[in-house]
Amino acid sequence: MTPLIEAAAVGEDAYSHAEATVAGEPASLVLIRVEGQVRAWHNVCPHAGRRLDWAPGRFLVDKAGHLVCAAHGASFRRADGLCVAGPCKGQSLVAVAVEERDGQVWLAD
Ligand code: FES
């Protein structure tokens, strides 16, 4: 199994990006660390299915630390990926289970 990303590359302030195969399909993931724990979601906005980043691996963040979709500005809470403002308010990003070990982040079994 291949690690997604080095654990040290996933910080509390900036969103990170990784490519993976999830359920047999290629996937783009967005990751962040919240209270020490790495969280990961598919890099797909629930509004119109667009990528969240404005360039590969480059994510917008507002003053509250929300992830902001580059397409139409939906804002997602870092703790749980819930959309708190914008055209898909109340919907959530699709979470991907990950685990951190040996200095790397891996897809969870
Ligand atoms: S696709 Fe993200 S807000 Fe429209």
Automatic annotation (TrEMBL):
Protein keywords: 2Fe-2S, Iron, Iron-sulfur, Metal-binding
Key word Signal present: no
Any single Pfam family the record assigns to this protein: Rieske
Superkingdom: Bacteria
Residue ranges of domain Rieske in the record: 5-107
The UniProt record lists the keyword Nucleotide-binding: no
Record InterPro entries: Rieske_2Fe-2S, Rieske_2Fe-2S_sf
Designated name of the protein: Rieske (2Fe-2S) protein
Source organism: Coralloluteibacterium thermophilum
